[in-house]
Amino acid sequence: MSKNERLALEFGATVIPHAVFLGVFLGLWEYAVRVGWLDSIFFGQPSGIASFLWANLIQSASLWKEMGWTVFGTFSSFVLGSIAAILTGLLFVMMPRLERFLDPYLTAFNAMPRIALVPLFILWFGLGVASKIAIGVTLTFFIVLSSTIAGMRGLNQDHVVLTRTLGARPAQMFAYVTLPGAIPVIFSGLRLGLLYAMLGVVGGEIIAAEHGLGQSLAYLGSTFNMNGVMALLLILSVLGMTVTGIMTYVEKRLLHWQ
What we know:
The chain is 86% helix and 0% strand. It is mainly α. The chain has two domains: 38 residues; 213 residues, MetI-like fold, CATH 1.10.3720.10.
C-alpha cells in the first residue's frame, strides 16, 4: 500500500465517523424543531443557522468585519500579555527575592474575576478595542508567566552543571540551555493563553463594545435571534480551534529537534 493510499484511509477513518455523527445530530435537531418537540425560539434550527451564515458571511459579509475586530483584539492582547509575562518570568528567575516580594500582589490581582474589571477598563480605555485588549492581557499574562517560571526552573540540572563546567558564559547558557529547555513548557502556557485572550476579548465585547463577535452575540441574544446566536457560537468554536491549531503548528515547527 502506497503512502498516499494509507493517508487516504486514515483520513477516511477519522472524518467519516464524525461526518456521520454530525449528520445524524443535525438531522434529529431539525426534525425535532419541525415536529414541535423543540422550540426554535430557544434552540434555533440547523436550516435557520445555515441561512443566517449564508446571508451574513457570503451575501453581505457583515460578520467578517466583526470577526476581524475580535481576531485583532485577541492577537494584540496575546502578544502584549505574552511578551510582558515572558520578560517578567525571566526577571523573577534571575531575581528570586523580587518574585517573593511581588508574589502576594500578583496573587491578589490574579484572584480577581476579570469580568469585574471590565467597567474599570471601559472607563479607562473607552468602548473600543483597547479595553478588550486590556482584559485579554490580564488573562494571558498570568497563564504565560506561570508556565515561563515553571519552564525556566524545571531544567535538567545535569545539563546546567555540565554547561557551566565547560565554561559557558551566561548569554550562552540562556541561548543554548535555558531557553531550549523551557520552550516546551512555555508553549503549553502560550497555547492556553491564546484561548484565554480570545475569551477575555469576547467577554468584554458581550458586556459593552462597538464592534466584535461578542457585541453581535449580545445583540442577537437580546432580540431572541437564536439562529444567529447559534451561528456565532459555531464561528467562535471554529475560531478557537483554528488559533489552537496555529499554535500547535508553530510549536511543532520550533520543536522539531525534540
